[in-house]
Amino acid sequence: MKTLKTFYDNIGLPRLIIALFFVLLIVASILLGFSPSALFSDVVRRWLMYGTLVLAMVPGIQSGIGLNFGISLGISSGLFGAVLAMEVAFVRDWNGLYGAGSPWMTLGLALLLGIIFAAIVGTLYGMLLNRVKGSEMTVSTYVGFSAIAFMNIVWLSLAFKNGELSWPLQGQGLRNTASLSGSFGGLLSNPDVVQTTQPEWLHWLAFRVGDFTIPLGLVLVFGFLCFLVWLFFRSKSGIAMSGAGENQLFTTSSGINVDKKRIQGTAISTVLGAVGIILYAQTYGFLQLYNAPLMMGFASVASILIGGATVKRAKISHVLIGTLLFQGILVTALPVINEVVEIGTLPEVLRIIISNGIILYALSKTKGENQ
Amino acid sequence: MKQKSNVLNKVGSFVFDNKVMIGFAIICLVAIVLSGSPMTFIVDGVMTRITRNTFTVLALIIPVIAGLGLNFGIVIGAVAAQIAVFWVVYWGFEGFGGILLTVLIATPLAVWFGYLVGKLFNRMKGAEMIAGLILGYFADGLYQLLFLVVIGGIIPVNNPKLIISGGVGVKNTIDLTGNLKYAIDSVRMVDIVTVLFYAVLAITVIKAILHLVKKYQLKRNDLTLFGVSALAFGISYIPVVERFLSTDRLVLLDAFTGVLIVLAIIQIAKIIKSIIDKQPAAGIKKPVLLLVLYGVLYGLTFIPAIEEVMLFVKLPVLPFLLIAGLAWFNQKILSTRLGQNMRTVGQSMSVANASGINSDQTRVLAMIISTMLACWGQIIFLQNIGTFSTYGAHTQIAQFAIAALLVGGASVQKATNKQAIIGVILFHTLFIVAPQAGKELFNNAQIGEYFRVFVSYGVIALSLAMHAWKVFKKEVRPPTEGSDLISSKPPEISEVVNT
Amino acid sequence: MDDQYLLSMSNITKEYYGNRVLKNVNLNVKPGEIHALVGENGAGKSTLMNILFGMPVIFNTGGFEGQIYLDGEPVTIESPHAAMDHGIGMVHQEFMLIPEFSVTENIKLGREIGESNALSKIFGRLLDKMDWNQMSKDSRKSLDSIGMMNIEEYAKVAGMPIGYKQFVEIAREIDKTGIKLLVFDEPTAVLTESEAGRLLEIMRLIADKGIAIIFITHRLTEVMAVADSMTILRDGEFVARKEVGETSLANMAELMIGRKVERLVEDELLGQRELFDDRIALEFKDYSVDMPGERVRGMNVKVRAGEIFGFGGLAGQGKIGILNGIMGLYDTEGEVISFGKTLDLSKLGEALRNGIAFVSEDRRGVGLLLGESIERNITFSAMQINNEFLKSIGPVKILDKKAADEHTKEMIKLLDIRCTGPSQVVGSLSGGNQQKVCLARALTMVPKILIVSEPTRGIDIGAKKLVLEHLTKINRELGTTIVMISSELVELRSLCDRIAIVSEGKVFDIMRPDDSDVAYGLAMAGVREEVR
């Protein structure tokens, strides 16, 4: 009985509800006659698509800055890197020169540029957060919003030659959504793209088994990133960072500069955000500019909280479970709800209620303990 | 020489204290010049937006004073208003009566919501702002659930004008034309005077009764108030005045002149009073200077460019009176015991508690008042704008109201009526001219639009960061030992050894 | 009940979770007298005053036994508000003032005078209009009555000298109608000498108006100077009530400290060690630490290699600051020299790198990662400073789980930490076992010098003995120099070779464990021997 109670306390009512809801949806969708393998393919795809963005929360939480709503800074950096890489590829005509290798080069350059921008931005952002200790979340939310608004102006002012990016017949401004189909879209996850554009020896990157799609390339990349983060938090530096997030005084008294660790954590979180959005775009097939990433930070925060993280502690397992549950519900809810009540916007409403509800719950938990 | 440096110092500290406001004013000026829009257009637009938005911005002041920071939760007040508006429109009520019914339904709802929000914030002390923000989104989700699923889905509502063709869920926009549009704006002045007169009459009668049963001492002010209102009521029967008052809009020039006249009368009264009290020298200087200033201001209206604007812009009377009333209310509530308690709680909850003030209760009251005012503000907003965007009208309200307040020079801990009003003027000036300025400057109106969004986020981010920085710098780790004579924590005691 | 007393608290007994902190304590105060309440930290003064003020902490932990009489009448005081209604007020040590408010606003805090109006008649007092005119008049009167003509009632409190703030607090209490008894909680602790003198004068002035004063202080000289009578508490027990005229400083000091000292630790090896005055393990030269509430102000002391050296003294005198400076949590000045090497304390981890390990007095706040495993806690410092428990994979250093695990198990066995295993989360351990984890972390550093601060605070008697025994063992067997900072004199005297009494941030005196109680009492109170 006692273990049951601790089990319940550890999980928390909202998480329990969400998990049960997910199970219910799966059962309902199967009963309603949806193809399980198509559904699961979709769940897996969305899971991997958002995974890295959620993973980016871990270094932030562990280093003590709390829920990093400011992940939008990383997202903006990543988008900027991707946009620049695509323009370079177009201007240099990589497609013509390197053929099947061109998307890989574009993806590589996008990641490289994104990581560089994110590292710079993240470091500066970390320095800002060190000055506002105690109010990181409020400040980071609005810094994130401001960054998106600022990038809107940037997108609008860029004059690029690549027709996929810029509006036709206009000298200035980028599209709202730029298709990646000629570039690195689906390169790691879409069997159609991989089978048609890539040489035979790379066909294992994404393939189908019956109805079920296996995006092996993306699985490996995401798995590798998770492994890197896991490894980092077992390294000397990572352990020091966890300490800094858990107890600043303890860590300081052990001879570690807590502020530096927080900056590192913020920078790593921002870099993962940049990588995350590029992998997201890769899976989705489109680059979404302007206000599309505005609330992505909230989705990431909500996912990791659903997975069981708190404002102070997070693990890789929280990332995996949380993203699976959150995205899983959104994917399965759409067809089920449409079948039952025919209100197309309901999953969106559900998303708003679940994500903000869980954040609110987590906030009330931590602040309640402090009193 | 010394005096000069003193003046310079004063100017310097004025600029420093109002840096946000001054910086923003400069941006506005530059944008106005760049846009090349005619002043008539700008002033008219700004006045319309003042009508719509000032009430909501003023609703933010009390939570700031009570230490709850910028109330991102006013979205919830707006939601209460919108629920009421929907039903009133659905039931087919119209005009000012419809507005009264809306207020009647919305107010208890808003009070209840405010109570819940206050309770929640008491559980998250120190994180009210982020909680309020998230709570706003959360409430939006529940609101959508109500309007998309419950209305039509569970509560049968049959009205093809309001409901999506499938019969479940409310349409994206509800047209208020013909029912609530301008229901407050279009109240005639003569009606306002009449209602005010009867209200004062009723209050005076009640006071007189209280006086008779010896529970209240009737004061000279009470009688003066009654006299003035009776006089105003009487004058409104003079044909010329009646004709003037029988409209619902006031030309800006008339409004301006009227305000100047009232102010001038007050100053003259002060002069007379100080002459009667026989201390003329000290008491007269300021009123006389002000009188001269009013004269100069009135003179300015004769400049053709200004006169043109003044004659072009027409103001709805009642909303402005309501805004003035709210500003007055904010002022008055602070001079009561409740207001003093709020200020104390805002400064330090622990000191307040130690002084016997129930700080949790005070905070809940502040939230109830703020939520209720925000709700009324949203009603004014909707009736003025005339189309009710079901799923969008409330989403940005906190964002824009808070940005406006901050632009006026307020901070997380300090906000005044003046800052709210200046803020609304500056912020909405930028909103009006930014697209045109963007077009002139970059040949792209959208850049201007994105710029104003950036500014509204940026000013909040800046303000929050500056506040957090200030708090963080002040924070010192409390001594680990020392006097704990009156502390609420029991001393640390031995715990049972784990086995 | 004897009605010559304004206040009688008789036979007060209080337990916190079965831990008796007050045993049959009596406190009697006459009208118009200044009555001093003296005792060491932990003697029970705070608890007694919490009872007098009806603090929630008392009632949340099961109330108390005994009876309070006011003017001879039995009363129950169940809330601070009730205490106020009975005319009992307090001048706090940490000021209950709002800096941004004016003096008048602060004096009238929570007791504002309102004018009722039609609205407040209907909706209640909350809508009363404030009568600032009357309030500033009252404030003026109350300030004048304590001779503070030069404090303007309309001035902001922010930026006033500390002494003035204290006077504003006093004026607030005086302004309360029907005030009969005023408690001053260590009022002179934060004041300069001249301000303190002024305060004592004002206390006399108030007492002469017929208001009784309970004066809580550690400064015995002040008691002698201003009090009429006093009550002495020791370890939660009533020791004596004395008229000041009938007693002396030495007598007071003895009553405050007096108790049997026994060696808590069995030790055959004592005295077999050789300590040399020229082999210095740790030296402080003009050492200052800027720790609020526990400032160290220019300390000079030498600790010999191989000895157990104690720092004692009252709370707030600076003994706690000594370690916090070394840990790098607060800024320091002056020199700390360890085995001839001057430490640069501005560099984080400097002490650890030079063979100094420590156990903080703030176990939960500084000493532990409460959410992490025992293993992580024990190995953390050694890993970060000495690169232990790591293995290299290329350029990166990764946790050597096996080594860490083995070491932790060893420590669990050595210190008898009761737990389910190395992976148990430290936050779920009992206080005593948490303290052992702290000790294990320090020992893992294999230090030449071990500094422990309040090593037995908040742990039960069995664990206490074990910790102290182990400290002695480390000292005897490994030759580790041990510096022990503690509020418990008994503990220090049972273990240490020498004990430095810290007063006002400096070493007041260095004493032997077998010095007399009187000597300890006077040293703790900061009274020079000449006065004796």
Largest sheet of chain A: 2 strands, antiparallel
Strand-residue proportion of chain C: 25-35%
- CATH level-two architecture of the largest domain in chain C: 3-Layer(aba) Sandwich
Instruction: Give me the secondary-structure category of chain C.
Output: alpha/beta
Number of strands of chain C: 24
**SSE class of chain A:** mainly alpha
Q: How many distinct folded domains of chain C?
A: 3
Helix tally of chain A equals 16
Radius of gyration of chain C: 26 Å
Shape of chain A: globular
Q: Would you report the number of β strands of chain A?
A: 4
Cα distance spanning the termini of chain A: 29 Å
Mean pLDDT of chain C comes to: 85
Features:
heterotrimer, A: 371 residues, mainly alpha, ABC transporter involved in vitamin B12 uptake, BtuC, two-stranded antiparallel ribbon, two-stranded antiparallel sheet, 16 helices, 4 strands, 71% helix, disordered C terminus, B: 499 residues, 2 domains, 20 helices
Short summary of the structure?
The complex is a heterotrimer of chains A (371), B (499) and C (532). Chain A is 71% helix and 3% strand.
Topology at a glance:
The complex is a heterotrimer of chains A (371), B (499) and C (532).
Chain A: H1 2-11, H2 13-31, H3 36-55, H4 57-63, H5 71-91, H6 94-98, H7 101-131, H8 136-157, E1 177-179, H9 191-197, E2 207-209, E3 212-214, H10 216-232, H11 236-246, H12 248-253, H13 258-284, E4 286-288, H14 296-306, H15 316-340, H16 346-370
Antiparallel strand pairs in A: 1-4, 2-3
Chain B: H1 2-17, H2 19-35, H3 39-58, H4 61-65, H5 74-91, H6 95-123, H7 128-153, E1 173-175, H8 189-212, H9 220-235, H10 239-245, E2 249-251, H11 252-276, H12 280-300, H13 304-312, E3 314-316, H14 317-334, H15 337-347, H16 349-354, H17 359-385, E4 387-389, H18 397-407, H19 417-442, H20 445-474
Antiparallel strand pairs in B: 1-4, 2-3
Chain C: E1 7-16, E2 19-29, E3 34-38, H1 45-52, H2 56-60, E4 65-70, E5 73-75, H3 80-85, E6 88-91, H4 103-107, E7 114-115, H5 118-123, E8 129-130, H6 132-145, H7 162-175, E9 181-185, H8 193-208, E10 212-216, H9 220-226, E11 229-234, E12 237-243, H10 249-257, E13 280-289, E14 296-304, E15 308-312, H11 319-327, E16 332-338, E17 341-342, H12 350-353, E18 356-359, H13 363-367, H14 374-386, E19 390-393, E20 396-399, H15 401-415, H16 431-444, E21 449-453, H17 461-478, E22 481-485, H18 489-495, E23 498-503, E24 506-511, H19 517-524
Parallel strand pairs in C: 3-10, 3-11, 6-9, 9-10, 15-22, 15-23, 18-21, 21-22
Antiparallel strand pairs in C: 1-2, 1-4, 4-5, 7-8, 11-12, 13-14, 13-16, 16-17, 19-20, 23-24
Helix pairs in contact in C: 6-7, 10-19, 14-15, 14-16
